[in-house]
Specification:
Blueprint lengths: L6 H10 L12 E2 L2 H10 L7 E5 L5 H9 L2 E6 L5 H7 L6 E5 L7 H9 L4 E6 L5 H10 L4 E9 H8 L9 H9 E9 L4 E2 L6 E8 L10 H13 L5 H6 L7 H10 L13 H12 L1
Parallel strand pairs: 2-3, 2-5, 3-4, 5-6
Antiparallel strand pairs: 1-8, 6-9, 7-9
Helix pairs in contact: 6-8, 9-12
Bound molecules: S-adenosylmethionine (SAM).
Amino acid sequence: MASLGIPANTIEILKKYNFSFQKKFGQNFLIDTHILEKIIEESHITKDDCVLEIGPGIGTMTQYLAENARHVVAVEIDKSLIPILEDTLSEYDNVTVLNADILKTDIQAICDEYNNGKPIKVVANLPYYITTPIIMGLFESHVPLKSITIMVQKEVAERMKEGPGSKDYGALSLAVQYYADPEIVAEVSPNCFIPKPNVGSAVIRLTRYEKPPVNVEDENFMFALIRASFNQRRKTLSNGISNAGLGISREQVTKALEQMELSPTVRGEALTLEQFANLSNILKK
Ligand code: SAM
C-alpha cells in the first residue's frame, strides 16, 4: 500500500469508502510525509518497542509505526474506520486495531498482553478535544510508559512546558513536569492535515522520569492542592485551598506559607513544582 502521507492516496481511500469526517471525534488526518517521518524519528522507536497509537484514523501514521516498531496497538473510537484500517494495514502482521474509546481502555492490560507488562511508547496525532484527559489518564494510572510523543494544539504544547509567571502555567504544566521531561520537537501548520484544523499544532515528546524530580509524600494530595489553587486563579492560594473542601483551614495554609518564607497573599501561579511539593508535605503533617 502506497503511503497515505501522500495527499492523493488519502483522498483516494476517503473516496473509495465514501468516508465523512466526524467533527465530534476531532478528525484531522495527516497528509505530510516529512511530518510523519519527523514524528517517527523523534519518538525514538526501535524494533524492540511496543507502541500504543491513539486514534489511527485511516492508518496513515500506523503504517510508519508498523515499519519501525515490533508491535503496534491502535485504539480507534470510530467504527466506520475499522474496515478502512483492515484495508490500509493489510500488509502488516504486527498491528492490532481495537475499536474502543481510549478513555475507557485498560492500557495496563494492553501492556500485559502485548509487551509482557514492560513499558510501552505512546505515539499519536491526538484528537484535540480530549488532550488533557488522555495525558492525565496515562500518567495518573501509572501504566508502564517510556515516552509519549504526540501532536497537540500548539498552545497546549507550550502550556506543558511553562513555569511560574506565565499566564499559561497551570495544573497541566505541573502534572506533565512532575511525571516527564517535555520537549517540543516540531511545529506543524494546518496545511499538513485534511481537513485543516483552525489552530496551529506542535509535536511534543514527554519522556517519563524514572523518579519524579521532587519528593512528595502523597502525590494525590499534592495534585488536589494544585487543582484547588488553579481552579480559582484570581484568588490567593490560601483562599483557594481553604475553600476547596480538603479540610484545610486558611490559618494552616498561612502558617505553611510562612514556614516556606512565602507571602500569605501569594497566588498559586507563582509557585514552582518544588514549592507545591514542599507545601503538600508540610500540610500533610
Ligand atoms: N492518526 C490519524 C492521522 O494522523 O491521520 C488520525 C488523527 S485524528 C487527529 C484523531 C483520531 O482519533 C481520529 O481518527 C478519531 O476518530 C480518533 N478518536 C477520537 N476520539 C477518540 C477516543 N476517545 N478514543 C480513540 N480514538 C479517538
